[in-house]
């Protein structure tokens, strides 16, 4: 079942769990996310960065949308870090039910302006919108980028930003970074910042850069009030680690001989994340509450 982010995260918020947003860059990763979600009866978000959409091409998402719609598990197909109204419109034309407009590197008022512009367009056709305040770090190991020095989200800004833009979800900066951290770097999330933000706003909150952080910190963030956690590097790393092992010891060349073990390795990571987010088995709530499938154009 394909739903939008507002539908997905309102239930997660009410029932105190988070939903994983897993970046998908080809058909193997789409299989990983969808099959792991179905095997564990867990809701999931298929996230796509603009560079990943460039690589997969628009036509690929005709299949992705069809696959999600025909599942008994709820999915959102989400544009991750949309960088312009044009990239947002491309995602909408591909059938995405949710988008993120990332104006986090802009001055506060400019971030409000571009985010509100996207909200005004998307809400007319039932597409959910995620905004971002503060900045995510960059480990240098992810296509999603980031900055060298994190700017933490100011709780008072979050309140104003939500009021002026009308966003459905807010990505907050509490010390995470995109990619895999170098061995000498130990991330530490500022839970006090998250708690203060949570005390001021009522919409669902998002944590970007969820890979490679200590499990206990991610679990704590979910307990405080994060409803969506973005994961990309951790499960892609597991896929390609297994791929390298197979290719270094064999002369295989057929994808159907090489990739099944890689898919299983990545699915094991996705399942572990779902356990961490307390989302396993939670798809049943959406069915019990008779959540209706999303269709583009609905308000």
Automatic annotation (TrEMBL):
Signal peptide location: none
Listed cofactors: Zn(2+)
NCBIfam families listed in its UniProt record: cbbA, PRK08185.1
Protein name, UniProt field: Ketose-bisphosphate aldolase
CDD domains in the record: TBP_aldolase_IIB
């Amino acid at each position: 079942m394909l739903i939008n982010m507002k539908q997905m995260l309102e239930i997660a918020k009410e029932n105190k769990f988070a939903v994983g947003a897993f970046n998908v860059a080809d058909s193997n990763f789409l299989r990983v996310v969808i099959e792991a979600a179905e095997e564990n009866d867990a809701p999931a978000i298929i996230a796509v960065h603009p560079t990943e959409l460039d690589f997969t091409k628009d036509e690929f998402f005709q299949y992705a949308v069809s696959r999600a719609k025909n599942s008994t598990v709820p999915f959102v197909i989400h544009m991750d870090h949309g960088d312009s109204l044009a990239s947002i419109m491309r995602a909408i034309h591909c059938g995405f039910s949710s988008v993120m407009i990332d104006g986090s590197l802009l001055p506060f008022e400019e971030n409000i302006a571009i985010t509100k512009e996207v909200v005004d367009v998307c809400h007319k056709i039932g597409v959910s919108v995620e905004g971002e305040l503060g900045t995510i770090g960059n480990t240098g190991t992810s296509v999603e980028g980031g900055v060298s020095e994190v700017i933490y989200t100011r709780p008072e800004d979050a309140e104003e930003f939500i009021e002026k833009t009308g966003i459905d979800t807010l990505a907050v900066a509490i010390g995470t970074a995109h990619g895999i951290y170098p061995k000498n770097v130990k991330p530490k999330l500022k839970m006090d910042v998250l708690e203060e933000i949570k005390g001021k706003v009522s919409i669902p909150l998002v944590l970007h850069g969820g890979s490679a952080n200590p499990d206990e910190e991610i679990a704590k963030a979910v307990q405080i009030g994060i409803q969506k956690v973005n994961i990309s590097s951790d499960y892609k790393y597991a896929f390609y680690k297994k791929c390298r092992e197979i290719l270094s010891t064999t002369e295989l060349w057929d994808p159907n001989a090489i990739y099944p073990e890689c898919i299983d390795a990545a699915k094991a990571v996705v399942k572990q994340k779902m356990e961490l987010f307390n989302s396993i088995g939670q798809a049943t709530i959406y069915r019990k509450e008779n959540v209706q499938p999303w269709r583009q154009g609905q308000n």
